[in-house]
Amino acid sequence: MISVGALIASGIHPTQARLFADPLSAACALYAINTPPRIAGFIAQARVESAGFTQLEELLNYTTAERIRSIWPREVTSLQQAATLTCKPKELATVVYANRNGNGDEASGDGWTYRGRGIFQLTGRANYADAAAEIGRPYVDQPDLVAMPSDACLTAAWYWSTIKGNLLADASQWDAITKAINGGMLQADARRQYSEQGVAAFA
User: Is residue 138 domain-resident?
Assistant: First the structure.
């Protein structure tokens, strides 16, 4: 069901559709993402998280203190602190992802090492380790693998399985999927729209 034509019909640019059709098909087959609603929901989330399958690594290059504070109000507690992190992606990741998702403290550098990668922006040492154990790939020692198309799709399909994405998609619970994947409900309307449109594209 996942073909170049179907991906294009769902709104994916032809270049990305050609690059990702096979990796997506292989990954989805492993985790029974195999009906129009399941595929549509999965692709919709990936489309938003990866900027249309063009961004497989979290950039974290924010240019204003206000934007940093709006995204990480608990981790970055003042505009003054945020100002020291503008245009410094490594330093920002080290601060905002410290002591989260299995990461060590700021000194460990885990926040940068295990920043978001893949079509679902897999984040945190614990998630990299769990994906590695399930898939049999060395993501902890070689985290950059998650930014390669095949592993980007495999890790996303694995994560989808951990949130019971198939069951949620079967019930058209698009917002629940967004909450489980994104947490902050970023672009929830777009994810819902892409999911609903995708059901027809992947029929």
Answer: no
Cβ-in-10-Å burial (0-12, 13-18, 19+) of 10 comes to buried
> Measured between alpha carbons, how far is 114 from 145 in angstroms, rounded to an integer?
11
pLDDT tens for each residue of 29-82: 999 999 999 999 999 999 999 999 999 999 999 999 999 999 999 999 999 999
Q: Which domain holds residue 124?
A: 4-56+119-132+147-201
- The answer as to whether 33 is a domain residue is yes
Q: How far is CA 106 from CA 75, 91, 93, 96, 126, in A?
A: 12, 9, 9, 9, 16
Give me the pLDDT at residue 98, please: 97
Q: Which two tokens stand for residue 75?
A: 């981790």
CA–CA–CA angle 167, 171, 173 (5° rounding): 90
